[in-house]
Amino acid sequence: MSLEPNKIPFWFRFERSGNMDEFQEACRKLELDPLIIEDMLNEQHLPKVEIYEHLVFLIARIFPNKDNLAESSMVCLILGERFVLSYEPGFAFYNSLLNPQKIPERASKNPESLFLLLFDWVVDSYLPLSTCLRRQADMMEEEALDQPEKDFSVRFQQLYKIIGNCRRAVSILHEDFMRLTPFNTPLISKSSQHILNDIQDHLRGSVQALETNASLLISTRGLYQDAVRQRQSEIIQHLTFITSIFIPLSFVTGVFGMNFANLPLLESPYGYLIVLIVMVLIAVWMWAFFKRRLKE
C-alpha cells in the first residue's frame, strides 16, 4: 500500500519560487531558529547536517539538469518530532520520484521514515551523476589519445571544475552525515540504523566514483600534454630540417651576392647555371642525409 504525498499531513513542502509568506508562517508555527531559516534562503550554502535538541537540519546539493552539470540546486530537509519540512528548488525533483513509486505507507505515518526516504532519494541521484561524468571523462580520454579539438583544454577545465564541485558537495555531506546516529539524536531510532548504513554506503560509493573520475581526468591531462609535446617536437624537428637545408644555400647566395668585381664565374655565361646546380645538389644531399638520420 502507498499514499499520495499530498495526503501526508506532517510533510510541509515548499519550493523556492513559491509563496514566501506561507513559508515564513510555517517556519513561525514550527518555531524554527532564525539561523536555520537564513541558511535555507541562502541558495549558495554548502551541504551540511546539523543536529539540534528537537530537530535535524540537512542541506544537500542536487544536480537536476543533466545537460548542464555546472548548475546545482539546494534541497533542505528538516526532521522534527512530529513533522518533516522540505524546501526545494522546485517540486519537479521529488515529483519525478513520487509519481511512479509514490511513498510507502510506513513513511506516510512516521516523520523519521519519511525524512530518511527523502534524503535517500537525494543520495541515489548522485550515482547517475557519477556515471554521466565518467562517460564524459572517458570520451575526453579517447579524444586525447586520438586528435584533440582546439577547444579541448577549455572543455577539460570545465569538466574538471564540475567534477570538483560535485565531489566537494558529496564529500562534505558524507562527512557530516556520519554524525547522524541514534546516539546523537532521539529523533533517529535504533531500528533505522540499517537505513543510515545504506545511505552512508551510497554516499561513500559516490565519493569514490567522483574521486575516480577526477583521477581519470588528471591522467587524461597527462596524455593530452604528452600529445601536445609530441606534436611540438615534430614541428620543431621539421623546422630544423628545413632550416638546415637552407643554411648552406643562404651561404652560397650570400657569397655571390657580395659587391666585388672579381668573383668566380661572374663573367661566365654558365655561371648562374653552375651555381644553381651546385645549390640543388647541396639541397638534395642535405635532404638525403637528414632522411637517413631520421630513420636511424
Give a description of the structure.
There is one protein chain. This protein has two domains: 2-229, CorA soluble domain-like (Beta Polymerase, domain 2, 2-Layer Sandwich), CATH 3.30.460.20; 258-296. Helix content is 61%, strand content 11%. It has nine helices and seven strands, in the order E-E-H-H-E-E-E-E-H-E-H-H-H-H-H-H. The strands form two sheets. It has a five-stranded mixed beta sheet with strand order 2-6-5-4-3, covered by helices on one side. Strands 1-7 form a two-stranded antiparallel sheet. The longest helix has 64 residues, at 193-256.
CATH C-level class of the largest domain is Alpha Beta
Q: What is the residue-averaged pLDDT?
A: 83
* Total strand segments: 7
**Whole-number total of structural domains:** 2
Strand order, largest beta sheet: 2-6-5-4-3
What fraction, in percent, of the residue positions are helical?
55-70%
How are helices and strands ordered from N to C?
A: EEHHEEEEHEHHHHHH
Spans of at least 5 consecutive residues with low confidence: none
Q: Could you give the distance between the termini?
A: 78 Å
- Overall, the morphology is rod-shaped
CATH H-level superfamily title of the largest domain: CorA soluble domain-like
Main β-sheet description: 5 strands, mixed
Q: The CATH topology of the largest domain, please?
A: Beta Polymerase, domain 2
Number of helices: 9
Radius of gyration: 34 Å
Beta percentage is: 5-15%
User: Structural class of the secondary elements?
Assistant: alpha+beta
